[in-house]
Amino acid sequence: MVATPVKAEKRLTMQTAEIAANTTAIRSLDWDRDRFDIEFGLQNGTTYNSYIIQGEKLALVDTSHEKFRQLYLDTLTGLIDPKTIDYLVISHTEPDHSGLVKDILQLAPQVTVVGSKVAIQFLEDFVHQPFQRQLVKSGDTLDLGKGHVLEFVSAPNLHWPDTILTYDRATQLLFTCDVFGMHYCSDSLFDEDLKAIEPDYRFYYECLMAPNARSVLSALKRMESLAGVTMVANGHGPLLRYNVDELIGRYRTWSEGQSKAEKTVAVFYVSDYGYSDRISQAIARGIIKTGVAVEMVDLKSAEPQDVQELVGRCAGIVIGMPPLSGSHLKETTTSIGTILAAAKPKQFIGMFESYGGDDEPIDPLLTKFREAGLTKAFPSIRIKDTPSEAIYQLCEESGTDLGQALSIDLKVKQLKAIDNELEKAIGRISGGLYIITAKKGNLSGAMLASWVAQASFEPPGFTVAVAKDRAIESLMQVGDKFVLNVLEEGKYQALMKHFLKRFPPGADRFAGVKTQFAANGSPILTNALAYLECEVISRMECSDHWIVYSKVTNGRVSNSDALTAVHHRKVGNYY
């Protein structure tokens, strides 16, 4: 008899705290959320942060996820009478922050909703009821009294086109919603443990902000006019109080690096339609891993001249199918027409379905681009059901394929630039032959590796260098588990040949290979000499690789008399 585990109730808790004069944080703690919108692998849950500012008038900044409806509303009404709310500031309209706007409007019909022009337009489609509104842009202010003058900073495309930041001149708090956030849930209100939050902060940036690096730099430029930021009141994770300059500075450093890429791909999506934004983010992440820059554009709110300029300088184009009808049909039709008119031969083109129930068909539009001389970047992604982890992996790998195709000539140029004697000398560094296998949820991956070295005795641990554009890199974040399979001298050729193949996006790496599962859930190659079960402890970034340090939790050798396969090279500019 097999015992069926009882599905545990997800832990949802609330936390409130006064964080500055007349300013209260309301944090909705989602302890057990292990995936966020599927495409982002969480290890540490997440939070949804909302804020109350009480001057002579009262402002509520953002709300919470609908799963917290009763908990949040009970907490809010325990702190204030909703009838006293004068303003509801909407940083952006994604449901995890605006999921309870309708509830607030029912409790406080007198409230004036404050947001960017695009946010108010999106909110109208979301709440389906009349409400008072105040449109704001960079430099606009709102005086709440008692010195609390709110100054607004436009931050479009971080990560939606409607985003604004809100700065309180009295407390020097900057309310940023997604910007400078992270999916990290703990009782700690602030960022006192920088080492603990660093991996999640970086991973969050890579998933949501890196595809809009130029927009990040533009927002940081606008922030320079602010008197000074003493605390970042973000929308996810701990608030930034102890490392404000450091963590804001990292956004600048990372974004400057992204913006220096020699080639760019324009990724067009439709916000709040089907799964368009989530799929586009997964594709964008795959592209960015290859060192190619991405600029994401919402077809609903894009200006034709901006679309034309972007397409004209891009090496590749990715389009999420817009709806065939609806209130934004004119805007999306105009954007698609502008893209088609500005596209040039030799550009790459990729397309995906949004699964919104009314998608424009892919094939007729793709045919027009092919007739214009564009090259198909990857097999069109057709969504027939709610996207699963496997679909998002397919999307990310499709993006990686596109990025690799665009960067081939650059890599050849870099290889030719290396001094011949130097590359011969580096090539004398030898290594063993190993295959890394990993499984997380329904996702799996594998990689042939030779840059492996023991790094510690206690706990037993080693490092492995993983190229940034490897598909398995996404399964080797801090906290992830995997298996290092050691190949045997004289018996490694078949396995090496199999895993050196170029797999199409979404392909099963283990088809035709004998495997069994380790205690940590990752595949063990039956024909390997030995295996080690591992957990990622930390990662160090190098120019084109991640150095991943992992501790070993278990292991076994199948033949104690056999030797590890050794890999000798003659030059050091490739594996």
Write structural notes for this entry:
This protein is of the alpha/beta class. The chain has 14 helices and 30 strands.
Form type: globular
Q: What is the beta-strand fraction?
A: 25-35%
Q: Sheet bearing the most strands, described? A: 7 strands, mixed
Tell me the helix content: 25-40%
What is the averaged pLDDT score?
Answer: 92
Rg over CA atoms, rounded to whole Å, is: 25 Å
The unreliable regions are 1-8
Structural class: alpha/beta
Distance between the termini: 49 Å
Q: How many strands appear in the DSSP assignment? A: 30
**Tally of DSSP helical segments:** 14
Overview in brief:
With about 575 residues, the chain is of the alpha/beta class. It is built from 14 helices and 30 strands. Helix content is about 30%, strand content about 30%.
Topology (SSEs and partners):
Blueprint: E1 12-20, E2 23-30, E3 35-36, E4 40-41, E5 46-54, E6 58-61, H1 69-79, E7 85-89, H2 95-98, H3 101-107, E8 112-115, H4 117-127, E9 132-135, E10 141-143, E11 149-154, E12 164-168, E13 173-177, H5 194-209, H6 213-223, E14 231-234, H7 244-259, E15 264-269, H8 276-288, E16 293-298, H9 304-313, E17 316-320, H10 329-342, E18 348-352, H11 362-371, E19 375-376, H12 389-417, H13 420-426, E20 431-432, E21 434-440, E22 443-449, E23 452-456, E24 461-467, E25 481-486, H14 493-499, E26 515-517, E27 523-525, E28 530-541, E29 545-557, E30 566-567
Parallel strand pairs: 6-7, 7-8, 8-9, 13-14, 15-16, 15-17, 17-18, 18-19
Antiparallel strand pairs: 1-2, 2-5, 3-4, 5-6, 10-11, 11-12, 12-13, 20-30, 21-22, 21-25, 23-24, 24-29, 25-28, 26-27, 28-29
Helix pairs in contact: 6-7, 8-12, 9-10
